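Task: encode each sequence below as structure tokens.

Item 1
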Amino acid sequence: MSGKDWAEKDYYKILGVNKNATDKEIREAFRKIARQNHPDQHPGDAAAEKRFKEASEANSVLGDAKKRKEYDDMRRFAHMGGGGFRFQRGGAEDIFAGAQGQDLGDLFGGLFNRGGATRASGGGARPRPARRGADVESEITLDFADAVNGTTVPIRSISNNACSVCHGTGAKSGTMPTVCTSCQGSGMRVTTSASGFPETATCTDCLGRGLIVNDPCDECKGSGRARSSRTIQVRIPAGVDDGQRIRIRGKGGPGENGGPNGDLFVVAHVRPHEIFGRDGANLTITAPITFPEAVLGAEIEVPTLDGTGVRLRIPAGTPSGRRFRARGKGATRADGTRADLMVTVEVTVPPTLSADARAALEQYAELANEPDPRADLNQH
């Protein structure tokens, strides 16, 4: 039976005993179930027969000290995340098989780094330090409206994960790494400096892994790592600016020796809009008005980013360049409120005039008798 089959079955639960049960308690539990569900006592009862077979299987493992130890070790390792270690009845069949992407280099630190001593320290072997995974950076380009309102985008991230061929061991299939004799599997070496003080440094023989790969994996060349890509859905908050970095915790490179994953940093680039701009959380737009509208006043329709539009009152005598505020028509702020739309009016000048329009404008200029607007310039 494979270790996967064992991992999927709780033999203690089948027999109704706890994990610290004695051999006697296991035997008594099995005999009780066997008496109650023996096929001779329940002919044709498929449920009783299944229960009897499960109990017999559980007893064959838990009732044998060696098999029970293998079973307990396998389940402990599987619960660490491997989920696919396989064992023969007499020992490890293929400790690397089916690790489902787990870095088994981390696991070996626990298997081999028991007892022993570093060469220089003379004490017990030290566990290899946990290492945080590398941060990963990715770039996206957003439409203006998505940057203002927020959106969810797929992002392809590339990082160094456990090699899918050797499952992170770095060793060719059918072989296994050996414990580094220089550091006794700790990945660290303690030496004495010239001043007589102990110094701890990464082992130069195993480069901190605690293991030596004698026959390296063809795919990863013994590193235990391989570049891989994945696509994740990332929520872009409303109001993101061009060039802003967004941090996604725990979505970077995988950690080593039980260390946490790194972070994913997403750099947002925002495409410019044809008519709208940004001033912080406020949106901006330039609205042209005619000369009569500027002089006489008017009510104009101004477009908004959401397409609803807003009506804006232009007072009489409005000069070109004056700014108006349409409240609540801007981008969403961090607190969920909406900023404003800032409208700058620009008085347009007609390139041509009809004869009647020219005559009327000349008559206006004569009747208005306006003072010279450049008079102040002549005084300097």
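Item 2
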Amino acid sequence: MSTISKRKKIVITAVAAVLVIVLVVGLSVFGWLYAFDYRKDPVQKATSVTVDADGKLRVLQLTDLHLTAPAWNGNDQQTIEWVKTAIRLADPDVVAVTGDAAMGIYWYRQREKGIVAIAEIFEEAGIPWMYTLGNHDGEWGWDTQAMVGRENEEQGNEELLEILQGYKYSLMQKGDTTGTGNYVIDVVDKDGNVVYGLINMDTHGKVFNEDGSRGPGYMGLSADQVQWYEREVNALCERAGKLVNSALFMHVPLYEYQDALDNYPLWGSFTQYSIQDHCYVPETNIGMYDKMVELKSTDFVTAGHDHDHNFAVMYEGKDRVNSDFPVILHYGRTSGVEAWERRIPIGASVIDINVNATTTESRYKISVIEPPESFVYNEYSGW
């Protein structure tokens, strides 16, 4: 055998060995990634938050972070750094994440990594935090890569709940109605008296057809959730010993958001965006807003979901028939660099609540924080 042939054989053997090593290591990492279980045992934690001596509470709303879409990359790290910066700038009493913190359309196990990364920021800061599920959080299930319909999404959400309930400062609860994460957090004064409520509700994902395939539009709340809401508001007021106000945190906005955008002026002094005329509201109006007006507790609603909306409206119903009980309908500022087709700057909404105020307009102040000029981030990548 010639010297050249021997060299070729040695080179081929070496390359083959390297490829085997790379394959083994790659499969090991892949197996670890997909086998690692982030779920935790539930821990005993607070079910209330406390206002300051002046009856004020600051909520930082983060929405549509969309980590791991399409994969854990530099844009995700920018989003993580922005969350840390937003907490530092806002100095909130409680954080509200209104859905779609992570996605699993392409890398289903990676979204657990995204959720955990966000949770650990809040835990390190020692800030109570609420989580409201979005349409992408449990999408396709967390233990399968196949899209198999509603049942699989519900499984994914249940597994996400197992992760989030294991954190000390997490306020998330399952709830006893349709969906995962329908719960009320009491807001109390220094003496422990209930003075306000923070309501979180699961707006589910896409509408499903009878054959299990995905239909058009989004489900939103269900009729039994409206009944649950009525029970919980009555229970909140019973704990308070009087009628108290409350705020509703959700992902997919109420049906009435479209009418609000079409027929009402914007409310609030912050810079607002409404790049498109369409709001991605549920396909069906199940009467949630009407129930809110009837009970006269919830006078503030905030949602996410639409990445190019960030506005507020003082809503009084269709044709202003409910002028005696105005409700602020608010779209939170999209917070994730990789939010789908995002065309507005990332940021976060700061909601200052004064529980002692006597009118809806004076009870709430909304502001938006954006990354400082020194914080450089990428445009949406177009996944």
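Check on item 2: The radius of gyration is 23 Å. DSSP finds eight helices and 16 strands in the chain.
End of task.
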